[in-house]
From TrEMBL:
It comes from Sphingomonas albertensis. This is CsbD family protein. Keywords: Membrane, Transmembrane, Transmembrane helix. It comes from the Bacteria. The keyword Chloroplast does not apply. The lineage of its organism: Bacteria, Pseudomonadati, Pseudomonadota, Alphaproteobacteria, Sphingomonadales. Residues 4-56 form the CsbD-like domain. Coiled coil: none annotated. The chain crosses the membrane at residues 74-91. Belongs to the UPF0337 (CsbD) family.
Length: 94
């Protein structure tokens, strides 16, 4: 869990409190602010969760590729060349 997830949860909670207070007092403006804060908090939580997924899943793959390229530089260069040619041919429609 990172700071975006925590801050998003706090913003979401604050938005729920504002909405409840706005509903209780009949203040439509405060209620609308609460709903908007909830939306912003949900978006921020989602961004935080996406960062966690990238960190947990993509980072080990990147570390593996770096280690592989340090241990076998010529093989890594050959693989990169083949992948580059394949990508160029794919983009060209061949």
């Amino acid at each position: 869990m990172n700071t975006d997830t925590l801050a998003g949860a706090a913003t979401d909670f604050g938005g729920k409190a504002k909405e409840a207070l706005g509903t209780a007092t009949g203040d439509k403006s405060l209620k609308s602010e609460g709903v908007a804060d909830q939306l912003g908090g949900t978006v921020q939580k989602t961004v935080g969760q996406a960062k966690d997924v990238v960190e947990d899943n993509i980072r080990p793959l990147v570390d593996y590729v770096r280690q592989f390229s340090k241990e076998r530089p010529f093989t890594a260069a050959a693989v990169a060349g083949v992948l580059g040619i394949a990508l160029i041919n794919t983009l060209r429609g061949k």
